Every structure is written in structure tokens, then in C-alpha cells.
Amino acid sequence: MSTARTESERVELANTALYEAVERGDTAAMEQLWLNEPGAEVSCVHPGWPVLRGRSEVLRSYALIMASTDYIQFFLTDVEVSVTGDTALVTCTENILSGAPAENEGELGPLVGQLVVATNVFRRTAGGEWKVWSHHGSPVLAGEEDEEDDGDESP
């Protein structure tokens, strides 16, 4: 069973590397992290975006996000890793802290928090590396349940 645990740890490291590349705005690292195999089309859904298919479209989207974001940091919680053969599934909550646009050039704008639940699918390459095959992020509408429960005493 130690092999499965080791693979799970390797997948979790690959997952963490994905978020660290975004935080650094590192497009070269992002290119290395995504699967690049014939016949294995990658896909990505950023919160509020349509499905992006194909490596060039996905990498372009990350380049745009990183270029237009002054500051971003991810705190990952609820991380669950499942490995089956050469495929791995990671679910997690992205607790995102980012800088909103600044009023004055050269300054950091106010910090904004956001919750996103994410599913990241990885594929093990012939070389044994885990690469991102698909990412799907959906915003968490915090407080929605609380608003529905306030003052409602009906069964």
C-alpha cells in the first residue's frame, strides 16, 4: 500500500505546483505542468468562464489571468486525492486572496477573498510524471444557506 500513498503524495505535490505557478505568474512552469500528449486533449473551466479545450487555449487563459492579476494567493483546504492507475482526481477548496484593481498606478488595490471548489484531474505520463489533464473551478456562493434559514421557522 505504500506505493499508492507515494503516488497520492506525488499527485498532491503536482496539484500544489499548479497553484504556486499561478501565484508567481510563471507561464513557463504552467506549460510544464499541463499534459502535452497526442490524443489527450486538456480542458479547463475557470469560474464564470465557458469550457476551454486544447492546450493552447488553456495556457492562454492562465497567461491572461496571471497578466491581469497584481496579487493572488491560494490557501487550499479539504484536499482529497484519489489515484486509480494512471489517472488521479484531486478535489479541494481554493480559498483565494487577490488584489483588486488599485486606484493609483503602482499601488496594490484592496484585497478580495473568494471561495472556489475545484476538481483537478491528473494523468501519469510514460515518464512517470503527473500532469494536469483537466481543471474545473466553481464559485462557492457563501452565505446563501444562511440567508434562506434566517427567520424561516417552517418545517
Described by the principal axes of the CA atoms, the overall outline is: globular
Uncertain residue segments: none
What is the CATH architecture term?
Roll
Percent range of helical residues: 25-40%
From the alpha-carbon coordinates, what is the Rg to the nearest angstrom? 18 Å
Average predicted confidence as pLDDT? 88
Strand content: 35-45%
Number of strands: 6
Strand line-up across the major sheet: 2-1-6-5-4-3
Structural class: alpha+beta
What is the helix/strand order? HHEEHEEEEH
Please work out how many helical segments DSSP would assign.
4
Highest-level CATH class: Alpha Beta
CATH topology: Nuclear Transport Factor 2, Chain: A
Sheet bearing the most strands, described?
Answer: 6 strands, mixed
- The span between the termini is 47 Å
The total domain count is 1
Domain SnoaL-like: 11-140
Region (Disordered): 136-155
Organism: Streptomyces luteosporeus
Protein name: Nuclear transport factor 2 family protein
